Amino acid sequence: MCKTCFAAICLFIFISCNNTTDEKKVAIVTDATQKDSLVIIDTTASTYNNEYEVPDDACFASIFKGADKKLTNKKSVVKNGVETTVRELIGKEYAGKAYCSSGNEDLDGDGGKELWIRGYTGGTHCCDGWQVFVQQHSGSYELEDSLTAGHLCFDGRLFTFEFTEQLGYFMSCYACGFEDSASGFIPMREIKLKYENRKFQVLSYSAEEEKQLMKNLSILKRNSYKPQGIEGDYGYIKKEIAMNIAVYYFNHDKDWSKTRSLFDKYYIFKDAKSVIKELKEYIDYIDNRNSF
């Protein structure tokens, strides 16, 4: 028997012998590499009561403030035809830690009570996972929409979906970016969403914001001829172009033909063919995982 397998078995026995309640669940799962690994899902009561509170400075805090986790975690939810409890869902999908609303929200004003869950998918710089359940006549809450592949904030009325998580390393380092406030450049890395008719929908930006985006692309194109910082390093400019192109795409009814034309106009580097292919893959990834 391999040392790793022996250690896993010993750990399993130790946990089983020392677990005096059914509050901790231990499960053997198979990961993408097809190797068995021991995963401990902590479903202790403290994870679900008010000890796990939303930080006051969290940009999405208003939806979740005031929810009583002791009551919420027992509520029944239906996802993909399977009924379970909030507690079990969070334990399975978010390793036992996620924020949950009270179940009395009605953000789209249609009279239906909503229950919001916000977890974290894991991984470096990625990603928020949101699920919206709407109460049915039976009293249980059924999944109506979900959102992932980005970072989401809420100001009490609108949501802000940021592309930083997906495009943060695009052709550059995560912390790298273009800055030139003197020329009028303003970073554009997000889109506005509204929750309406039980779906997330893009709230198209204004004419002034479109004008700013075009100005950004002009400034980036102009600076593509004279690299700043490390000689020959244009990565930070390429990433900023990608951010603006993504913003444009989702604000123009996801019209790829128009988006591609805009890219061709402002991207002057020789690797344009490979870069636009990679950018399209990122955009498709976001698009295919969300309803907006």
Model description:
It is a single chain. By secondary structure, the protein is an alpha+beta fold. It folds into two domains: 20-26 and 37-150, no CATH class; 164-288, no CATH class. The chain is 34% helix and 23% strand. The strands form two sheets. Strands 3, 4, 5, 6, 7, 8, 9, 10 and 11 form a nine-stranded mixed sheet that branches. It has a two-stranded antiparallel ribbon with strand order 1-2. A hairpin with a 2-residue loop joins strand 3 and strand 4 (82-85). Helix 6 runs antiparallel to helix 7 and helix 7 (235-251) packs antiparallel against helix 8. The longest helix is centred in the last third of the chain and has 17 residues, at 207-223. The model is unreliable at 3-51 (pLDDT under 50).
Structure, briefly:
This protein is an alpha+beta fold and 292 residues long. It contains nine helices and eleven strands. The protein has helices spanning 3-18, 45-48, 69-72, 86-93, 164-167, 207-223, 235-251, 256-266, 272-288; strands spanning 24-30, 36-42, 76-79, 82-85, 99-100, 114-120, 128-135, 141-154, 159-162, 190-196, 199-202.
